[in-house]
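Batch 3, record 17
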Amino acid sequence: MEHAEAITFDPHAEEDRTSTGIPHDKMGMWIFLCSEVMFFTGLIGSYIVLRYGSNWPDPKLTLNIWLTAGNTFILICSSVTMVKALEWIQRGDVRKMKLFLCLTLLGGSIFLGVQIFEYRHLLHEGFNPHVSLFGSAFYTMTGFHGFHVFCGVVCIAFCTGKAFLGKYTPEHHLGIETLGLYWHFVDLVWILLFAIVYLI
Amino acid sequence: MTTDGHTIPNYMAIFWWLLGLTIVEIGWAILPHHSKLVLAGGIVAMAVIKAVLVAMYFMHLKFERKTLGVLFASTLILGLILVSVGIGELRLPKPGYPHGIVNGQQ
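Prediction for the assembled complex:
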């Protein structure tokens, strides 16, 4: 009986922390994000090497900067609404947390919608992944980022559902915090991609 | 207000900073520049400031234990080494061909 108690694990217990003092879920997310840093650094590094090793067209002549700038604004707003959702659950206001989670979900969905619209427009114009090195690099980088946004939107939808089922309380909201870390990371990567791929 | 042992930052102030820097960034990209290096340097600098703001305040890295900062920074350092090696390779002559010969043709 004593042994059975010793191996009992409550995944929702926020006091269940690693030797670093950081909860397991959060530590796991940070380690995952570190692997993501390496992944995106590989992509960005390859882009820089390819770009400065060959003749490269001016991205501003092919890509719609204003559309993507608007999309960047939406993603930044969704990052703010995500952090506000966490703030409100920490303050004990569950209703506002739900509202801000819904707004985050909306922001992420709009971002994906605009990216699909942009892809359709570019493909229609004849700018596809095999037309040039620039096309290939553009679709690879923004495509992988879009996939990350899609995964984030699915996870936010799941957490929003859980929030409406009353699974998060001011005492137990680690899921929101962990998801927030992922979502902010996706925003952070987009900030760099927008600068490197679209503006330079 | 304090939760989880740290003061909640003013997220709206960070938002306005991010928005302002994005506007300046786009303005900088549109302006004509004599040097590509000045254009790229300005945009990368602003993008890095924005990324640091997101990591520090939205991801709460500023208020977290140093362990997480060290963990995150170590991957960034490895990433920078990777990019530096790649850029450095661009400056080296292509192996297997003498200078001035590309794809077997002079």
